[in-house]
Each structure stands twice: as C-alpha cells, then as structure tokens.
Amino acid sequence: MTKPNDATQDFLDSSQYQTQSILQYEAIYGEDFVSPGGRAMAVEMIERLQLAPGASVLDVGCGLGGSAFVMASEFGLRVDGIDLSKNMLEIANRKLRTRGLSDQVRLEWGDCLQLDRTDSYDAIYSRDVFLHIHDKTRLFSVLKAALRAGGQLLFTDYCCGPKPWSADFTAYVANRGYCLHSAEEYSSLLAQAGFSQVVAEDASARFIEILRSDLDRIGALEIEQSVRDGLERSWRQKLARSSTGDHRWGLFTAVKRPCDSGSPNHTEETT
Ligand SMILES: C[S@@+](CC[C@H](N)C(=O)[O-])C[C@H]1O[C@@H](n2cnc3c(N)ncnc32)[C@H](O)[C@@H]1O
Q1: What is the number of H-type helices and E-type strands within the chain?
Q2: Domain 9-257 in CATH: superfamily?
C-alpha cells in the first residue's frame, strides 16, 4: 500500500483505524480510548494543564472522544475535538450523543494540518497523534496560531532512539507510515516554532509499564484465540522494541508567548 507523506483519511480508515481494529484497541486501552494508559493517563495529563472551568481546549486527533469527555464532565472545560479518521469520529459522535455533553464538546472531522483557527484556545492537547504527521514544521505553526497568547500545548507521542534502528523497528515504522522523532528533536522543533517553556520528558519507562499491563488485559479478552494471539504477538514486539531503546515515548509541554498572536507563519517559512 502506498504510504502518504502525511496521514490521509483513506490511509487511516483502510489500515490502522478500520472499525474492527479501533474496537480492539479500545478493548485494550479502555472505554473511549485508543492511546497508552487510557483514562488514567488522560486524567493525569489534563490535571497538568491546571485549567479553570470554562477554559477552551482543542483535542487534536481526539479519537473516540475519551479525553474530551473527561475534560468536559470532570474539569468543566469546553472542548473542540478534531480527527481525520471518519471511522473514529462516527463512533465518537455516537458516544457523545449518549453522554449529554453536547453543550460542552464538539467533535469534528478534519486534518489538523489544515486548521485555520487563530487565537482561539487556552490549551491544545493531543495524545499519540503526531506520529502520523510528517510536516511537523507546519503542524506546530498551525497549532501555535490556534492558541491564545499564553496558551499551553501538551502532547504525548511515540518517539524513537538514535539511528541505526533494528531492522524490525525500521520495518514497523515504514509499514505504519509513522514519522517519529527523539525527545530532543521535538524540543528543537517546538523552539523553532516559537514556543517558550518547552519541556520534553522521556516517558519510556512508563510506556513499558503500560505495555505490560496491556498484555494482562489482552490475555483476559473474550475474543477468538487467533485474534488474541495476534494482539499478544504485536504487544510483545512493541515491548521488545521499547526494551532496546528504539521505540520511546515522550511527554511534551510548551507555551505560546504571552505577547504572541496572529496567523501561522509556515507560508513565510517555506518561501
Ligand atoms: C492513536 S490514536 C489516538 C486517539 C486519541 N487521541 C486517544 O488518546 O484515544 C491517533 C489518532 O490521530 C488521528 N489523526 C491522525 N492524523 C491526523 C490528522 N492529520 N489530523 C487529525 N487527526 C489525525 C487518527 O485518526 C487517530 O484517531
């Protein structure tokens, strides 16, 4: 299958995020979530933002809406979620209708690289999405423009160790169409985009703990044996790639300078 430079809706919906796969991920990560650590990790990340009730958040790559639902119901935040996968959003919006949170949460289809909001959010939150995005310069430019001056960016993402990588990790990244960075590269990209107070944490040890507990959950899933075997194999491979240091996990925070406002600057940067 051809890999796009940046994830496209067709690519995502026909490969990693087919409805059946989404539901399997959800069974492993927990209701409403498709990222490591599920709800508990989301609560921890949202707490870090220390936002007052009523503050506005953009959840980039909102998936099934889990974080958005928690932000609204437990923290009183107003949330816009966008996601590029139609399969993901269809399930997310079905969930939203049953949660009674439609006054606070809006989940829309969209590519975050095409976002054209300016000075709109107190925080931008994203969990394990940027691995799909190759044009990080454009990404951070667009996200900074969408934040209010002084607004916060918080994201977690799959990261990588230094090259050369093992053949297995190289093939895995290519097959998924991922674009991974080290924590240091992410720090530089954020600083180049003009963010201040950039903090990059290597959270790989936490990731390994999460993978181990995921394996217990996979073992207990009431699904066809062959499917469970496939998931176990895939999680053991993730553990092996993490143990060698090729596959890492990072947590990043940054702030848009209080005096900074206006439109994205990626057009100027590329001319
Ligand atoms: C691993 S899932 C994480 C979902 C959610 N953040 C969570 O924590 O459960 C990654 C998500 O990123 C979305 N995504 C990938 N590329 C995107 C893009 N360019 N714009 C918006 N969403 C994107 C995918 O469709 C998918 O829902």
Answers
A1: 11, 7
A2: Vaccinia Virus protein VP39 (3.40.50.150)
